[in-house]
Amino acid sequence: MENKGKKFLINNIVPIVILVMIVMAAPISGLSGGYLVQEMISRLSRNSFLVLSLIIPVVAGMGLNFGIVLGAMAGQLGLIFITDWRIVGMEGIVLAVLISLPIAVLLGILGGYILNKAKGREMITSIIMGFFINGVYQLVVLYGMGNIIPMTNKKIILSRGYGIRNAIDLKNIRQVLDQSMVVKVGEFTVPLFTISIIAALCFFIVWFRKTKLGQDMRAIGQDMEIAKSAGIAVEKTRILSIVISTVLASVGQIIFLQNIGTMNTYNSHEQIGMFSIAAILIGGATAAKASIPNALGGIILFHLMFVISPRAGKELVGSAQIGEFFRVFVSYGIIALTLVLHQWRREQENKAERKKMMDMQLSGGEN
Amino acid sequence: MKTIGARIGVILAMILLGIFLFISGKEHEVFIENKGEKYTPKNAYYILDGEKEIKIKKKKKKREYIKGVNHTIEVRFKDAGGVEKKVVKEFKTKMGQIITINAAMIESDSWLKIEELKSKK
């Protein structure tokens, strides 16, 4: 019984630590329960798609895909084009998705190919790959757009005649998804359409895991060599998992930005990978195991901390800036802590496995 | 061969859907004015595509944004005899055109003025 409790504690140490911090900080912040619930509904609909896009590469054993930044860039390119062409409403959102799809697929293939060359070091490789593609993105957006790629909307072009402005007002598509079907539950406003899209993605992930491809990915995630000897096209399947993740991230970024209503052309995508990964890790996922409850629970915990900590910091020390520092420190600290804990758990498991094998050999020798 | 065909089919369908979305989601600029040749009502009221009713004063011009190709405008005003009139007209928008609707002349044939945009060189 004591062992079970200890195991539960070790397995869920990250969400438990964050929950304790939230429980301690919530009364200090002075924020009402109703306000926090409404904030969580809004933030769940804004971020879930992005965080859920991380699950499939984990299933395929590729760790946490910091390369979702690539997908986010593709989504932003779609949004730049529809803003330039003045396509508004739901049509604008769907067209942005259509434009971003081929770009996300190409970036996903490139990412998957590179990650296949760096087996075992996927996470760090995908971080660096994100930085590299970010450079290419900036070159295209800052120099190519208006110069090579024709742009007509003067509101989004820099005064020199080429390059996109630092911030783009997405008023043409602002909260189109969120406000297309709204339900009032008591005092809370629920964006039903966006939540339906997220629910559809959850069903897709559940269904996908049961398909042949999903089973292949799981087999690769468990042991690549055994999967290879079983006749699974390991490299192709790994590329596919990254392509799916990148495509989902591009759609996720469009959902995210339509909710916010403003796009920071050169920064919006940069933090996405880090924050989405922090959220899924806070939900209890590891680099080898992630599920839908991890993603959704993680978003709630992460954003509760995001909302509460600056106010709690302000109430405690009289400076909201301290709260900001606190949440940045916690979000990056959580990633480091979880990765360390994951490695420690793997070592413990390996140690237990070795001990078991030695015991078996010894007992076999005696017989 | 079958797979390649299916892939080409999907790409073509996506392109067609993209073109449809581009046309149906395109935002157009329309000018509404209240300036008649013989008679101009003091105030005219118009509803574009079933949206909110907007008041336009005598000899004023307003800019509106509408989405897609097919549109309706409903204009309400008092004629020279003080009789309340309500007229509904349909019009189409195309890329590269400036459309001006004259609320004061909505009953005549010259209610709609279409100008082609000149490209800058």
UniProtKB/TrEMBL annotation, chain A:
Q: From the record, give the transmembrane residue ranges.
A: 12-37, 49-73, 93-115, 127-145, 188-208, 239-260, 272-288, 295-313, 325-344
Note whether Zinc-finger occurs among the keywords.
Answer: no
How does this protein sit in the membrane?
Answer: Multi-pass membrane protein
Could you tell me where this protein is found in the cell? Cell membrane
Question: In the UniProt record, does the keyword Zinc-finger occur?
Answer: no
What keyword terms does UniProt attach to this protein? Answer: Cell membrane, Membrane, Transmembrane, Transmembrane helix
For this entry, the protein name equals ABC transporter permease
Q: What is the lineage of its organism?
A: Bacteria, Fusobacteriati, Fusobacteriota, Fusobacteriia, Fusobacteriales
From TrEMBL, chain B:
Transmembrane recorded as keyword: yes
Residue stretches spanning the membrane: 6-25
Instruction: Provide the alphabetized UniProt keywords.
Output: Membrane, Transmembrane, Transmembrane helix
Q: From what superkingdom does this record's organism come?
A: Bacteria
* Entry-linked InterPro entries: DUF6672 (IPR046654)
Report if keyword Transmembrane helix is assigned. yes
What protein name is recorded for this chain?
YxeA family protein
In which organism is this protein found?
Psychrilyobacter piezotolerans
